[in-house]
Amino acid sequence: MVEKMPGKVTEAILYHCGYCTNNLAVLFRGAQWEKRIFPALAVRICHKDLGNILYDTGYSESIFQKGVFLWLYRQVLPVCFKKGDRIDEKLALDGVSRESVKYIILSHNHPDHTGGLSRFPEYELVALKETLKGVPPGINPESRRAPERLLTNHFLCRYFEQVYDLFGDGSLIGIRLDGHCKGQMGLWIPDLKLFLAADACWGKDLVRHTLRMRLAPRLIQRSFSQYKDTLRRICRMKRDYPEIQVVFSHETGREQRLWP
With a threshold of 0.90, does the pTM exceed it? Predict the structure, then answer.
């Protein structure tokens, strides 16, 4: 069994804030010719003491701005983003104001995770140092903080080298998941037995395809060897603790609400 739950998180809501598309046969050798939608995940975490916390913010209209990088991004990963997909619009439908979000945890600084940052007026941005350095210009949160409470006796330390207590109450645990990029941070929510694994893989059904990833998508990863190592660690954790729900940021499926 996983460690005792702290009883701080009451709910998590998984939103899809736009999506990109690609073909599985282009990504993996031996895969069927199948167009796949990859949603951009943003998660609202309801915390008894800290209120509404976001983990990532999905796409926004900014993905269609001019610039060579964004143009190349859209050529490689065609993006669909329509009215109502932005994270603050999703929150409004649930009766949640932008002002109520005081903390945003950022897994890493790619456009499908940072798009909605500018929609929130004042908040503390929590991310690993490498991610904070790459936050897009024009984003001015109330403060920026890298986690400092490095844990040494948490059960996740058996699988991952850097594990952090983000708020000092055991409710939200950050985990370094290098490979896709340096400074990617996953999130463990013990109250929900939920492990948010960011872009450590593109979906649970695609884990077994990892070793057959084609050259082009391998080159997108900062380090494919680290990418494989991180995914192996997640799989070992899941094997030892099958009750843990692992969610990757671009899995297919519906938006959903999760309770303890």
Answer: yes
